[in-house]
Amino acid sequence: MLVLGIETSCDETGASVVEDGTRILSSTVASSLEFHKRYGGVVPEIATRYHVEVIDYAVRDALDSAGVRLADIGMVAVTKGPGLVGALLVGVSFAKALSYSIGVPLIGVNHLWAHLYSGLIGRPDIKFPFIGLVVSGGHTSLVLCSGIGKFKLLGQTRDDAVGEAFDKVAKVIGLGYPGGPAIEKAAQNGDPDAVRLKPPFLGDGSYDFSFSGLKTAVLYHTKGKSIGAKAAADIAASFQKVAVGSIVEKSVYACRSKCINTLIVGGGVSANGLLRSRLSAAGAENGIDVVFPEMRLSLDNGAMIASAGYLLHKKCPAKPGLGLTAEPGLEI
Ligand code: KG4
Ligand code: ZN
Fold it and tell me: Which of 79, 137, 194, 331 could form a disulfide with 234 if both were Cys (CB 3.0 to 4.6 A apart)?
């Protein structure tokens, strides 16, 4: 079955055609990133208007690149939440109209589930249960996944999401938006031990995270100083080391305490090289198979929505219909 996946939860307009949940025939991603830069973060109104302008082209491009016609599509899958309400509504409304007009089922997909299931693409050997780690701009969560659509939240951030902390720290040290890739790049020239930042202490046996203290520590460290390139690189490297360290520690703890030896990582921050190498090394030490999505699937995209939609549809077949609504506050 060919599934058309549509993603519009934040600033990326994603459209993709995926065959049987695993073979990605195309994945088009258009981004309004450039228009948000001058504001230092995503402006919901701008993101929404951009989706309206490009969604039609993104879908056409996904179909053309896959070499298929609309009539070949067997189902439409769309992100129903969580995300920015206006942005989600564009994708959901478009998907409803399109699926109705071609008479195929429509399925609404939880964006966080899709981030985790993207680790399953190309890894048919992975069995349930697994521990899922979502690290994105809006979420930092550890979950236990025992089957398709079966998630139990183990812990999450008590304040800022890790991606949000990367973005805010980057802003403070003048690296611009989006902060994650900018911090990673600057950190390559920095000394990770230059600035003493205390790791968040949540040593109560919980699976929770906290990143706002780290961000505040950077704010205090920089107060009243002019930050040159070397100082920014040192702060970036020091912050990245501590933030990544805390994620690695809690993730390994979750796997060990639940006696589960598969960890699937998803969300924008899973593109981070240090997180990838530190988690993989910790996994090798502890007998945990650490699975990252392909790099192009780490950031928001339509392929992960099509793929997750297909998995959900196989378990509980979707029907044609117009009942779907955007759910901006949807939880895992
Ligand atoms: O999953 P995503 O594309 O959108 C949300 O669902 O939030 O994640 C975006 C987040 C942003 O905070 C961005 O700064 C962060 O992922 N990010 C990174 C990297 N690439 C993106 N953080 C650290 N290192 C990266 N290389
Ligand atoms: Zn995301």
Answer: 194
